[in-house]
Design brief:
Layout: E1 4-8, E2 13-18, H1 21-33, E3 39-42, E4 47-52, E5 58-62, E6 66-70, E7 73-77, H2 79-85, E8 86-88, H3 89-97
Length: 98
């Protein structure tokens, strides 16, 4: 899985990756290998992973969502909200140069 830098349209920057079918198994394996307690499986439509979030508690990420790791906790952004809030750093710099 490749973590990319995204810049918020409101000046917030986050490093995140999009959960995809191709990276789902790698994510679950990495989390389990590192002792992170997670719940994972397949729901009605998508595979999911329930991650510990910063500040306590858990949040479910499904295929298409964006996940920002912060040490041993995570922030989950639903796909539609993430696309509205952030743009890929390389795309943002191209817009400034163009």
């Amino acid at each position: 899985m490749e973590i990319k830098t995204y810049i918020a349209k409101e000046k917030e920057t986050v490093m995140a990756f999009q959960l995809k079918e191709e990276t789902y198994d790698e994510l679950v394996k990495t989390l389990l290998d590192n002792g992170v307690l997670v719940t994972f499986g397949e729901g009605c439509d998508n595979s999911f992973v329930e991650l510990p979030v910063c500040g306590g508690g858990t949040e479910v990420a499904v295929i298409g969502d964006y996940i920002a790791p912060f040490g041993s906790c995570f922030r989950v952004y639903k796909q539609a909200a993430f696309v509205d809030m952030f743009e890929l750093e390389s795309e943002a710099s191209q817009e400034r140069e163009g």
